[in-house]
Amino acid sequence: MDFLNIVFYILVVLFSVVLHEVSHGIVANSMGDNTAKDLGRITLNPLKHLDWFGSVLLPLFTYWVGGFVFGYAKPVPYNPANLNDRKFGPAKVAFAGPAVNIIIAILFGLVLRFLPLSLEATILPQLLSFIVMLNLVLAIFNLMPIPPLDGHWLLLTFLPARFTAVKVFILRYSLMLFFIFLIFIFPIIFPLINLLFRVIVG
User: Rounded to an integer, what distance in angstroms lies between the CA atom of residue 16 and that of residue 150?
Assistant: First the structure.
């Protein structure tokens, strides 16, 4: 892999996670919370969202160790108390990020599916495949119901009140559960991601 390809992969990671985070801020702002807007976080300027570990060191490390690029940006802050929909607002804000990644995966996947035959022998299919796969990974990963991932807001919102003990357990042991998920469970989910990839790109 040459230098230009590495730069391309890092830029794809960067802007995929930036769009993910910006979407949280946009939805929160549309629902009455201006926190992200006031902090200048509703912007595509990657410098506003860079986390030096998650956006720089982690992608370089994962590429060096495993041959793939993965990372994250600084979470966009918002105040749930300011949302005009107190009940479902946090879930809507949380789902916005994975939803954007799914949309990106579908759009670029359709481009790849209907790519002219004259371009199939170029590097373009490989680059498009990376965009699709990365955004599917970001979407599925963030939908997992474990803090600090977006999916835990969906769980807290829709889990019936009689399961309060489950909510308390997840919040209390979130760090331990996150590492268990990262090491043991997420690798098992990859067949689902591969299936979604095949469904989208054909």
Answer: 15
| 65, HSE (Cβ side, Cα atoms, 13 Å) | 7
Instruction: Check if the beta carbon of residue 72 is closer than 8 Å to that of residue 17.
Output: yes
* Catalytic, out of 12, 20, 21, 100: 21
Check: CB of residue 184 under 8 Å from CB of residue 127: no
Give the predicted TM-score (pTM) of the model. 0.89
CA distance 51 to 20: 14
Q: Write the pLDDT tens digit of every residue in 153-197.
A: 999 999 998 999 999 999 999 989 988 988 888 888 889 999 999
Angle, CA 18 vertex, CA 91 and CA 154 arms, to 5°: 15
- Spell out the residues 6+ positions from residue 171 whose beta carbon is closer than 8 angstroms to its own: 147
CA 88 vs. chain centroid, Å, equals 20
How far is the CA of 88 from the CAs of 23, 59, 109, 158, 189, in angstroms? 16, 33, 31, 9, 27
Q: Tell me the two tokens of residue 72.
A: 């994250």
Q: Which 8-state DSSP code applies to residue 52?
A: I
Is 120 catalytic? The answer is no
Cβ-proximal residues to 74 (8 Å cutoff; 6+ apart), any chain = 21, 49, 50, 51, 54, 55
First to last CA, the chain: 26
Neighbours of 96 (CB within 10 A): 21
In tens, the pLDDT along 56-79 reads 787 777 777 766 666 677 889 999
